[in-house]
């Protein structure tokens, strides 16, 4: 299989960027280069995306640890010495040999990020991922947070609902960052979305939408959605550590002039207070962020 599948190709052709996508796609490899390995070992946060093997629902989950908990232990192997809580929506997927998983390491301090997608193997201390795709993204729409501290937190009880509460809708609409997990027939991926607060809209308790800003022309996320509408969203409170995980389906609307909007229908929401033991400094919004109403 090449870098792109039919879903990504369909979106690239619709937008007219196939040649640019071919050029950018040369940056996607299977090896974890030394600079990527060094970057990984500095990160206290890893975001994972996969489909639950029992329900098929796609989720994104955060994983944290002291820097070095996620590191390269081979030319194509990511080893993670940590796991999610047993009640996390991705717990079953991370315990299943051969799970297609997407991982994203993001450093708000430097506005750098890298993605590693592959197949998972559970281990005694966590899991490993044999890389099928490894690549970095530009810092566009990534907010800078210059520092963090690790704090002692006990996760509160998880709250599961079939739609968003009024408080959750307010949380979503105040967010400047979220993560989106998607899948296709041969893999999984997790990506970052960022903008000024208000760039995500909660039109109703079961529908969110956001404008798809111009990016690297690969259209991995929208391509996956064109092939399979299942998706999982992850919203973090960068101060309190609260986590909101959503699963459902998403579709892309293409408007004249090239504007695109993604609409996400919520199937299930899981909210966990104090889930992440990291407290980050206030954001400095990316200069690339357009006005949310633009």
Automatic annotation (TrEMBL):
Residues 164-252 form the Pyridoxamine 5'-phosphate oxidase N-terminal domain. It holds the Pfam family PNPOx_N. Signal peptide: none annotated. PANTHER family: FAD-BINDING, PUTATIVE (AFU_ORTHOLOGUE AFUA_6G07600)-RELATED. This is Pyridoxamine 5'-phosphate oxidase family protein. It comes from Streptomyces glaucus.
């Amino acid at each position: 299989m090449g870098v792109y599948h039919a879903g990504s190709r369909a979106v690239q052709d619709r937008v007219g960027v196939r040649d640019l996508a071919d050029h950018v796609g040369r940056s996607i490899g299977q090896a974890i280069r030394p600079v990527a390995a060094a970057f990984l070992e500095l990160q206290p946060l890893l975001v994972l995306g996969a489909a639950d093997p029992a329900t098929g629902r796609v989720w994104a989950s955060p994983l944290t640890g002291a820097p070095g908990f996620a590191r390269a232990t081979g030319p194509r192997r990511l080893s993670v010495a940590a796991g999610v809580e047993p009640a996390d929506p991705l717990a079953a997927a991370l315990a299943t040999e051969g799970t297609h998983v997407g991982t994203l390491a993001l450093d708000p301090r430097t506005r750098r990020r890298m993605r590693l997608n592959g197949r998972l193997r559970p281990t005694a201390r966590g899991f490993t991922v044999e890389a099928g795709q490894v690549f970095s993204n530009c810092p566009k729409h990534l907010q800078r947070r210059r520092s963090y501290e690790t704090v002692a937190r006990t996760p509160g009880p998880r709250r599961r609902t079939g739609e968003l509460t009024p408080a959750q809708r307010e949380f979503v609409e105040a967010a400047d960052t979220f993560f989106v997990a998607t899948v296709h027939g041969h893999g999984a991926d997790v990506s970052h979305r960022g903008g000024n607060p208000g760039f995500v809209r909660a039109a109703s308790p079961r529908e969110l939408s956001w404008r798809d800003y111009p990016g690297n022309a690969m259209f991995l996320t929208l391509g996956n959605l064109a092939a399979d509408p299942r998706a999982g969203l992850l919203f973090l409170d960068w101060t309190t550590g609260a986590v909101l995980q959503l699963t459902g389906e998403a579709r892309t609307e293409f408007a004249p002039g090239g504007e695109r909007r993604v609409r996400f229908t919520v199937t299930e929401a899981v909210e966990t207070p104090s889930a992440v033991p990291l407290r980050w400094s206030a954001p400095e919004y990316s200069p690339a962020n357009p006005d949310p109403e633009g």
